[in-house]
Amino acid sequence: MILTLSHQKGGVGKSTVAWNLAVSFSKIIPTRIVDLDTQRSLTVTNALRIEQGMEPIEMLHFNTAEELAQYAAEDSDDVLTIIDSGGFDSAFNRVAIIASDLLITPVSDKPFDLMGLQKYEEILKSLSEIQGETIKTHVLFNNINPSMKRFGELVEFICGSEHFELLVPVLRQRVDMAHSVGEGKSIKEYRIFSRADQEMDELFDEIKGILNIQ
Ligand SMILES: Nc1ncnc2c1ncn2[C@@H]1O[C@H](COP(=O)(O)OP(=O)(O)OP(=O)(O)O)[C@@H](O)[C@H]1O
Ligand SMILES: [Mg+2]
């Protein structure tokens, strides 16, 4: 199974969410991370994890998009591969989109997020035409101001597009989210029962259900 955190916009939380889901899923199914982030954020995070004496997550790197496509072609249901894609449009990221069983696209409530999502929809549209099927991503509200209640035009845009489906769990802006990754830990390993931990648990349960992983 392949799950990809995908958005051509940078800094939306792809690596943060990929990391937390990978640590949680690794407890119930063999889990690998494919690090396509040019800054190799999760490879660095995993090295910090090893320094702390914790069980590392299996990391994969590919030199070409063709190698990634080959890996994806041999994918099995016994292993979960989580792809952390870079924040830009590339051959690598397009292969990841096409190969995925589930796409998650984090967005926040910042001023340019609607524009970013409109651009991403164009990419999904053109890939859908090439593939001859509608490619859909699950949009995740992440890094949202804790006091914000209404998402207004962003929700209207998401609900009006055949390429987007809105995930119900919302991840709010929590300082623990940044700090935990900085120590090579998931939010649960960093501060269990915190609000961030509860929100991430809701997301984990939702994704488990969609992928039908027990
Ligand atoms: N829910 C959250 N609460 C607080 N901070 C967050 C949250 N999600 C992400 N961040 C912070 O936002 C920044 C960007 O997150 P991250 O690196 O995961 O984004 P990205 O989409 O992977 O970026 P890039 O496209 O550059 O790879 C980081 O500093 C991260 O700690
Ligand atoms: Mg990243």
Describe the structure.
With 214 residues, this protein is an alpha/beta fold. The chain has one domain: 3-Layer(aba) Sandwich (Rossmann fold). The protein has 9 helices and 7 strands. The protein has helices at residues 14-26, 41-51, 65-73, 91-99, 113-131, 152-159, 175-182, 187-190, 195-211, and strands at residues 2-5, 31-35, 58-60, 80-84, 102-107, 137-141, 164-166. Strands 3-2-4-1-5-6-7 form a 7-stranded parallel beta sheet, with helices on both faces. Helix 6 (152-159) links the parallel strand 6 and strand 7. The longest helix has 19 residues, at 113-131. The radius of gyration is 16 Å and the shape is globular. The model has no long low-confidence stretch (mean pLDDT 95). Residues 10-16, 37, 41, 86-87, 142-143, 171, 173-174, 177-178, 181 line the site of adenosine-5'-triphosphate (ATP). Magnesium ion binds next to helix 1.
Quick synopsis:
This protein has 214 residues and is of the alpha/beta class.
Features:
binds adenosine-5'-triphosphate; binds magnesium ion; seven-stranded parallel sheet; 14% strand; alpha/beta; 214 residues; globular; Rossmann fold; 9 helices
